[in-house]
Amino acid sequence: MESQLARIEQSLNARYTLWVREALDELHHNFTITDPTISGHPIVFASPGFLKMSGFSREQVVGNNGRIFQGPKTNRKTVMEIREAIREERAVRVHLLNYRKDGTPFWMLFQMSPVFSKEDGGVVHFIGVQVPIRRNKKLTDDGADAACNEIAFGSCRREVCPDSLVELTRVLALDTDTNCKGVKIEESCEASELEKQRAATAINDILSVLTHYSESTGRMVCEKRCSLPAAGLINSSLNISLGRIKQSFVLIDPHLPNMPVVYASDAFLKLTGYDRREVLGRDWNFLNGVDTDSSTLHQV
């Protein structure tokens, strides 16, 4: 059975060739790519721009999911919007407060888009683009650092307790090497039209790379569902939920000919030694052998 690490590695390599990572690295966008077919819906790629923005190393990000960037002031309603989009396998664009590795909060425009298999219509990846929401702040202290007037990450009053000076200072915190005094809070964290355009451009650039390299393997992908999902295909949300169950089990579809296996848990694969691709779509009777008790099979 493939290990979790091997599956993460093969998530891009098998579908887009080994060279896709190099091409993605050359894109000047902040983004991650996740795989909903792997238990935990982990990040399988993080761009250099995203790593620089977040302060995390690639080793700390790949294999984890987006929860590691959330914190006490992250809007749970917005997180649920993202989860609902994953469940419905559709694109979404929201404003989200995330946290860097050093604990500094920052507002960003988060745009997510599914990547569909052209062959069976299933979602194979999600692209998540992060564009920092930048604002020119008015300084109330003439002696404040001029650098603060150039770039400051926005904040929303509704996300900050106005009576807590400590929390207010935390949310307005910038990089530790910038000494910003008297930064005035803005009422809105709405992204500008330019920032929205940057996010849309990034999605298109990334999809273009993935589409191009998928042609090399014959496992082509597309931005929109090009065909109806194949019979027995488990959707992304259910796949993610089932992945949280640690027991050994399979799901079969009695409505399809020969009742094929449509889901196999990681624990089942570990127990049997099979690779997931060797199990899915097969009649569950392939597990039987010469010593399998026929009376027990009859009961099943």
TrEMBL record:
Keyword NAD, does the record have it?
A: no
Q: Which GO terms describe its molecular function?
A: photoreceptor activity
Q: Where is the PAS domain?
A: 39-89, 261-282
User: Which top-rank group of organisms is this from?
Assistant: Eukaryota
Record's Gene Ontology CC terms?
Answer: nucleus
PAC domain span: 90-145
GO process annotations (BP) = response to blue light
Which keywords appear in this protein's UniProt record, sorted alphabetically?
Answer: Chromophore, Flavoprotein, FMN, Photoreceptor protein, Receptor, Sensory transduction
**CDD domains attached to this UniProt entry:** PAS (cd00130)
| Listed NCBIfam families | sensory_box
- The protein in question is named PAS domain-containing protein
